[in-house]
């Protein structure tokens, strides 16, 4: 990087530290406009002098130089020795953005063209599934940035009029969590014959993603046969050998590159492929163009001009009003990041609330939560020096007005939490009811305009006294105010605007990291937990399969593991050849598996093929050919008996002959078969 000097050691940082002790006022009118968007900073705890000092801090941090290095393809992700070029993913076809001297834009568009061609084949019905049916249902498997970013865009587009028409008759779901409940929710109501699965894993080794991928591969192959996998599964990956070994045709693998960080990958095949399959490439291309428009203006930002001064202030009859209109101002994105640093590092506010007054943006906060907290939640500088100041923000949020009935109490009268209010001029789905005072959208936006003022100006005891509020309630109804926020008003929520919103946050977060002098593009903090989980996984396997005791963990973890193993204990019953068991799988115990899938899980454990006598949905009947071990969950069994609690009868290998009636002491609620063997 440009300098190894800690930003906190510069005169500009020290000047701001001194400045915050002296000044604590808000600007009255302070906003900028771009491409129909209005950004209002008036309610930040910053004056014109503060803004000037923040831009001087940016110069001291060599911010412009760092931005240029990112766009020029230098390896600014030094800990992983990688370029950071997510801006190339949405660059125009004729752009020139280099990594190691090579223009990567043609490679990007080669993949985009491939996605366009493939998605059009699927959507038109020229690419069909194994049984000849059109593939109208998409399940995208990925985790982290491979899930949160695409889900945010999908949710925002679901109610956009053009996108609705393009997606009619289709559905898109995202499978991320390794919890089998997430699998069950995703495949419920889905037909393997009409489902296309997109597996997103750069290396094709991500533990959670690949387990989910194998689960859905089993779901498809058990219904349609193993050869159906090639017609019903595609990949977003660079590891073609593993893709092919998995059963996916390498020609149906869509590439992305190591200069794309996971949380910045929504504009790559990670997001573009599933979104194009759902909405068509033309809609997604508008999203990319929106993001690109912000990229270009961010890159053109200059910090030595258009900085306002006191000469722009006007006066009314009662007080001085500082009126600042930046107009066409590329550095408004820089200012967003600078004000975040101002709130975190100088005011000491650790959190930020993202409050979109649009239900379509309900997944914005979770996505920005990852982009921000994974990027800037660091304890050392990019040179590995421990920092004496905090970096990053605790991001959370909920759409208005839902959040008002959840956590706004705290942000009004509890902790100070800087807020991002995001509003939309034109609703995606306007409703006008006869006789109502305002439309539904006007009701929503009334709250959007009111809440920032309530936070900024509050309500004083004197005002409450003037309203004749009882004295004992005045302390409870006092609002301290002086709580910072900024407002972003979008003209609409089209695919183009959604792309702009995404890029605004991405660049804002990068500015924060550049100022703090950290590496915003690695994520070593996620590695330790994954490593420890691998140790636990090995222990669970050893304890379940070999009966080995829990060892090698601290007392607390050992205690919890023992309890978990005890409560999921497996009772072993050995039966001679030729017998048949009949038992029931109860909802919630079988992980949503069909009878055939359960049999397939049992075969490797028993070590010999199982011969199915009958496959009704419930119960399951099967026979094995020699003495083998059948494992049954017994946590709901009152007592363990050497005699099995199921219908048992001697039958030949070829099938059913007779079945003995269950004895009187059979529990009325027999145990469920343990699905993980």
TrEMBL record:
Gene3D superfamilies associated with the record: 1.10.1390.10, Glucose-6-phosphate isomerase like protein, domain 1 (3.40.50.10490)
Keywords from the UniProt entry: Cytoplasm, Gluconeogenesis, Glycolysis, Isomerase
Subunit structure: Homodimer.
Biased amino acid composition, Pro residues: 667-677
Protein's pathway: Carbohydrate degradation; glycolysis; D-glyceraldehyde 3-phosphate and glycerone phosphate from D-glucose: step 2/4
Protein name per UniProt: Glucose-6-phosphate isomerase
Protein family (similarity comment): Belongs to the GPI family.
GO biological process: gluconeogenesis; glucose 6-phosphate metabolic process; glycolytic process
Pfam families: PGI
InterPro entries with a match to the protein in the record: G6P_Isomerase (IPR001672), G6P_Isomerase_C (IPR023096), Phosphoglucose_isomerase_CS (IPR018189), SIS_dom_sf (IPR046348), SIS_PGI_1 (IPR035476), SIS_PGI_2 (IPR035482)
């Amino acid at each position: 990087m440009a300098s190894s000097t800690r930003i906190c050691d510069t005169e500009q940082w020290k000047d701001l530290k001194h400045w915050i002790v002296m000044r604590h006022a808000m600007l009255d009118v302070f906003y900028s406009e771009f491409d129909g968007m209005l950004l209002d900073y008036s309610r930040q705890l910053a004056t014109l002098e503060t803004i000037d000092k923040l831009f001087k801090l940016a110069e001291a941090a060599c911010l412009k130089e760092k931005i240029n290095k990112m766009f020029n393809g230098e390896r600014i992700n030094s800990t992983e020795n990688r370029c950071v070029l997510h801006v190339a993913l949405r660059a125009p076809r004729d752009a020139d953005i280099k990594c190691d001297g090579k223009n990567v834009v043609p490679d990007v568009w080669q993949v985009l063209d491939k996605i366009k061609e493939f998605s059009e084949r699927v959507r038109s019905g020229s690419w069909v599934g194994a049984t000849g049916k059109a593939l109208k249902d998409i399940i995208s498997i990925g985790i982290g940035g491979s899930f949160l970013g695409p889900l945010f865009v999908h949710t925002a587009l679901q109610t956009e009029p053009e996108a609705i028409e393009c997606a009619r008759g289709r559905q898109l779901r995202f499978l991320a969590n390794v919890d089998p409940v997430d699998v069950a929710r995703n495949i419920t109501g889905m037909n393997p014959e009409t489902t296309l699965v997109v597996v997103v894993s750069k290396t094709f080794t991500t533990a959670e993603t690949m387990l989910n991928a194998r689960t859905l591969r089993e779901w498809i192959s058990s219904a349609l046969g193993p050869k159906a996998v090639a017609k019903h599964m595609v990949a977003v990956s660079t590891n073609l050998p593993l893709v092919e070994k998995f059963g996916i045709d390498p020609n149906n693998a869509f590439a992305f590159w190591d200069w794309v960080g996971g949380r910045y990958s929504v504009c790559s095949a990670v997001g573009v492929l599933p979104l194009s399959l759902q909405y068509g490439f033309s809609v997604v291309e508008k999203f990319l163009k929106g993001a690109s428009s912000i990229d270009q203006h961010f890159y053109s930002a200059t910090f030595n001009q258009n900085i306002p001064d006191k000469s722009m202030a006007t006066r009314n009859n009662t007080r001085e009003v500082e009126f600042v209109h930046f107009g066409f101002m590329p550095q408004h994105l820089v200012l967003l990041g600078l004000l975040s640093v101002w709130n975190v590092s100088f005011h000491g506010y650790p959190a930020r609330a993202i409050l979109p007054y649009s239900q379509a943006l309900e997944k914005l906060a979770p996505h920005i939560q990852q982009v921000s907290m994974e990027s800037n939640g660091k304890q050392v500088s990019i040179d590995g020096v421990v920092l004496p100041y905090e970096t990053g923000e605790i991001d959370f949020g909920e759409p208005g007005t839902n959040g008002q009935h959840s956590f706004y109490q705290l942000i009004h009268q509890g902790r100070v939490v800087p807020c991002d209010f995001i509003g939309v001029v034109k609703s995606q789905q306007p409703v006008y009811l006869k006789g109502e005072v305002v439309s539904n959208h006007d009701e929503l936006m009334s709250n959007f305009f009111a809440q920032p003022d309530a936070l900024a100006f509050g309500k004083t005891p004197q005002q409450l006294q003037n309203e004749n509020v009882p004295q004992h309630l005045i302390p409870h109804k006092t609002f301290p105010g002086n709580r910072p926020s900024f407002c972003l008003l979008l003209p609409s929520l089209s695919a183009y605007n959604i792309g702009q919103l995404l890029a605004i946050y991405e660049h804002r977060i990068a500015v924060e990291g550049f100022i703090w002098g950290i590496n915003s593009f690695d994520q070593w903090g996620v590695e330790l937990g994954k490593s420890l989980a691998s140790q636990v996984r090995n222990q669970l396997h050893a304890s379940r399969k070999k009966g080995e005791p829990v060892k090698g963990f601290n007392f607390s973890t050992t205690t919890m593991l023992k309890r978990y193993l005890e409560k999921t204990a497996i009772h072993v019953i050995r039966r001679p050849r030729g017998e048949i068991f009949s038992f029931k799988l109860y909802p919630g115990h079988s992980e949503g598996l069909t009878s055939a899938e359960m049999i397939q899980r049992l075969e490797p454990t028993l070590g010999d093929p199982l011969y199915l006598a009958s496959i009704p949905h419930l119960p399951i009947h099967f026979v094995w050919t020699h003495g083998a071990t059948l494992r049954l969950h017994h946590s709901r069994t009152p007592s363990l008996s050497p005699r099995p609690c199921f219908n048992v009868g001697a039958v030949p290998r070829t099938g059913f002959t007779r079945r003995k009636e269950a004895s009187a002491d059979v529990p009325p609620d027999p145990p469920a078969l343990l699905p993980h063997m």
